[in-house]
Structure formats: C-alpha cells, structure tokens
Specification:
The chain has about 220 residues and is mostly helical. It is built from twelve helices and no strands. It has two domains: about 120 residues, Alpha Horseshoe (Serine Threonine Protein Phosphatase 5, Tetratricopeptide repeat), CATH 1.25.40.10; about 100 residues, no CATH class.
C-alpha cells in the first residue's frame, strides 16, 4: 500500500475519533437538557447530531417538533426526523411514525402503514408499541381478538426496560381478573415464548397461525437454558 493511501486512512481515522466523542457529548447534553425541561438547549444539542445521522438525536428532535417543545410545533418536521430515525431502526421513532399515520399528523392518515410501523416498533420491544398491540388484540381492532395474547403483550410492556414507572398500565391486572387460572397460566407461556424469541413479531404471527403450537412447558424450558 502506498504512503498516500496510508495517509488518507490515517486522516479518516483521526476525523472519526474527533467526531465520535462530540456526538456522544452532544446527545448526552441534549438528554440532560430534556430531563431539566430545558428544551431550547436540547434542540440546540440534538440538531447537529441529527443532521449527522444520529438516530436517537433524530427521534428526540422529532419529539421536540411534534410537541412544540423549545420550537414551534411542526408535525411535518416531526415526521421527517422520526422517519429518518425509524428507517435506521429506532423503535421509539417507529412508534411515533405509527401514531402519526394513525392520526394523520404531518402525513396522510393510513391505518395500514400505522399497523406496519407499530409491528416494527413492537418487534424492537418498545413498551408503548407492545401496549397498543395488546389493546388491539384485547378489543379485536383489526385483528382476531385474543385476550391471552393481549395479556402477554401487556406484561411484556410492563416488564420492558424502556418503560418509565408512571407509564405502566393496569390493563394486565384488570384483564387477568376476567380469565381463569388456566388461561392466565397459558398467557404466561405465550409471554415466555414472545419474550425469548429472536423476533417477537415472527413468534407472535406463528402463535396466531397456530395457537396450540406453543408447548405448555415453554417457560420452564426457557428458564433451564
């Protein structure tokens, strides 16, 4: 390899080293500002990182524009930033995109796309998406009603690491009261299968296609691994 090529690679490495700490700092400072409800500072910190392609910064920026925090409310701008983050795999942004399609905010209302993005977000184990999906199966909105699956999804949401305590829902406890002990036990089996699956949505679809295909000892089998 010639000297010029090595020099170019070294220069690129130095640039990457210089940018990465700043990106981390900018995102961290933006999140700290969000905690303090200092949205103007958050906007200032997130914007350059979002423009550099940081998916989490794009998601946070979409939230600021969507709610009019530190900036004039702008649903179109909110959708733009969330779309970028969602395409990069950010589950929170995918949930926001689903919500915006459902309500027709910043984009024409489209239930099919709303469902598509909700499923993507749920596959990323995003708690609010799991809640909404659970509600759909509880009521039979657009899907075949299945209270056992609904309870499993509610419990997955409540046990999720990305759910703040004040967002936990009591629907799981209310729903469980309407089920027999055997049904609740079966729901926990579904919970185990979905929770341990590499792809939650693939496992969910497999269950819906064949509800009896889940072994009764799924939880015990998973705990033994």
């Amino acid at each position: 390899m010639n000297t010029k090529k090595w020099s170019a690679m070294a220069a690129l490495a130095l640039c990457l080293c210089a940018v990465q700490p700043h990106a981390i700092a900018g995102l961290a400072e933006g999140m700290a500002a969000m905690q303090k409800t200092d949205y103007g500072v958050a906007l200032k910190e997130f914007t350059p990182e979002a423009e550099r392609g940081n998916a989490e910064a794009q998601f946070q920026l979409g939230t600021l524009y969507g709610q009019g925090l530190g900036v004039d409310q702008d649903a179109v701008a909110a959708f733009k930033w969330n779309q970028m983050a969602a395409n990069a795999g950010n589950a929170g942004a995918q949930y926001q995109i689903a919500t915006m399609y459902k309500k027709g905010e910043g984009v024409p209302q489209d239930n099919a796309l709303a469902t598509q993005w909700l499923r993507k977000s749920a596959d990323g184990r995003y708690a609010l998406a799991l809640q909404d999906l659970g509600s759909a199966y509880q009521s039979g909105a657009g899907v075949k009603a299945d209270k056992l699956l609904a309870l499993a999804l509610f419990n997955l949401s409540n046990f999720s690491d990305n759910l703040s305590p004040n967002k936990k829902i009591s629907s799981s406890f209310v729903l469980a009261k309407d089920l027999t002990g055997t049904e609740v036990k079966r729901s926990w089996t579904i919970f185990c299968v979905l929770g341990n699956a590499k792809s939650l949505i693939s496992a969910l679809d497999a269950y819906v296609a064949n509800p009896k295909g889940i072994p009764a000892n799924a939880c015990a089998a998973n705990s033994a691994k």
